[in-house]
Each structure stands twice: as structure tokens, then as C-alpha cells.
């Protein structure tokens, strides 16, 4: 099944799904988001998709336009195979399907729905709406910030700060703290508004900034690979005036191949070493046991001869037995 078969799938949707009562599939979304923000929409089915091998798809529809399939997924031997429109990906956990949009754009606007493939009779579709607004911040003097909440091994994400010009501040800062907020933060960039200049810490990652004077804000974006807290700050005369915090966690990772191979090597080595130690101990014990028998056989004879010599010296020879 591919995205090119969208007309067939939509035909199933029109003729195979009743819009009356039935097993609903719920859909939740953040509603309105800022352009460029990471977005997640979640569909909750009424059954475990993986255990039942249930195929599914997600489509988007905008006012006055034909529905467009953005993701279509099928199970092949317990492995999920999906095809997506550009900018989308899917994560499945039990009955829940999460549709991720790495960077929301105006073309992602619309009403999203999820269904099974083929659709089940009596199932009622539930839509969730997504609206993407421009990057222009409000004039309330508040900092806006956003970043993906989950970072996988080797992945680079964008941590973004939007500083409106209406802020009462001299310096604009983006810093990274560790997860505990204990250690000293790493400064990624500091911009001096009076001098209209910025100093970038290139050790902290790839950092870019631009000032949009027409819309009245400065945009700072850092491409980062570390988990922790990313904090956008506005300072005036060393005093904090406004702050926005983004928390990025690390996803659990399986040990890599080198770790597994090292484990596979060390386990038999310990077994061999234990076997050698036991063999040495057994050998020493056997040797001592043999020597003990020899000593026990020699000891009575030597003792008898010594007694005979003493008896002869005293003139009292002991009779032989």
C-alpha cells in the first residue's frame, strides 16, 4: 500500500465508514502553533494496533479542498512499514498513534483524522484541527521559545528563542543547563541590543540569529545535540527581566553493537578463568593427597628401625614378629 493509492483509500472512507454511532477514534492536537515549531497530534484507537496487526492511515483536509493522505502504515511480520508526505513521521504505542511534524508550516493547516485500513463499519471519524501562525510574536513583551522534547542518539534538534523588540532589556541570551540545573550553564549566544551585535559560542553547537526589524523581533536558533534545559533570557543591567525555558530529554537507547560484542567476549573469558582456577586447585589437592599416602607408609618403618637401634644399644633386642 502506497500513498499513490489514495483515491482507493478515500473511496473506502466514503463508502465503507458510517458516520453514525460506533467505535470512535479520538484525535487531539495542540490547536494553534507557531511556524517552525515541532508539533505532535495523537490518535487513540479502540484496540492495540500492533498485537492485532491493524493497518491504518491519517489524512488531512482543508476547507474547500480534497482530502490528502499524509501517512499510510501497514504491518509486515510485526514490523511497521509507513509512507509519509514530506515533513511527517509516525510513532505507534499500543492503541495510540502520534503524528509528528518536525517543523510546522502553513501548508500543514487543516483538519486531521485517523482511521483503520480498510475502515471498519460503524466507525465514526473524529477530527482535530491544526492552525499554523507566522513567526511574528505578540507585542506583550514576552519571550517565546520552543524545541522538541525528545532527543535520540545522534539527532540534532533546533532550540528557538523569539525576543520581541518591545522587551525592556539590554542583553539577549541563550544558555544550556544540565538536567539538574546544578552545574554552571553553557552560554550559546549573547546579543547586545545597544550595539546590535552578537557573540556566539561555537563549541555549544551551530547557532544562528536574525533581526526582523519589520515585524519587531529577534530570532535565535541553535542546532544542538545535548539534552538538558535550554533557557532564553533577557537581562537589563545584570538583572533578569524575562525568561523562557525548554526541557529536552534523551530517549532510551539500546546498547550499540560494540557494547554487545564486548559483553559477549567477557562472559566466556570469565568462565574460562574460573575453570582454570578450579583445575589448579584440584591438581594441587590431588598432589597433596598422593604425598600424604607416601608419608604415611614410610613413617611406621622408620620408627620401628629407630626403636630397634635403641634397644640394641641398651642390650635389649626386641624379638622380630
> What series of H and E elements makes up the topology?
HEEEHEEEEEEEEEEEEEEEEEH
Across the major sheet, the strand order is 2-10-9-4-5-6
The pLDDT mean sits at 75
> Strand share of the residues?
35-45%
- Biggest beta sheet attributes: 6 strands, mixed
The name of the CATH superfamily of the largest domain reads Immunoglobulins
CATH topology of the largest domain: Immunoglobulin-like
In DSSP terms (H or I, runs of 4 or more residues), the helix count works out at: 3
The top-level CATH class of the largest domain is Mainly Beta
CATH architecture of the largest domain: Sandwich
Task: Assign an overall shape.
Answer: flat
- How far apart the termini lie comes to 106 Å
Search tags:
Immunoglobulin-like; six-stranded mixed β-sheet; 3 domains; 20 strands; 321 residues; alpha+beta; 39% strand
Report on the structure:
The chain is an alpha+beta fold and 321 residues long. It has three domains: 3-133, Sandwich (Immunoglobulin-like), CATH 2.60.40; 144-250, Immunoglobulins (Immunoglobulin-like, Sandwich); 255-321. It contains three helices and 20 strands. The strands form four sheets. Strands 2-10-9-4-5-6 form a six-stranded mixed β-sheet, with no helix packed on it. β4 (56-61) and β5 form a beta hairpin. The longest helix is centred in the last third of the chain and has 57 residues, at 257-313.
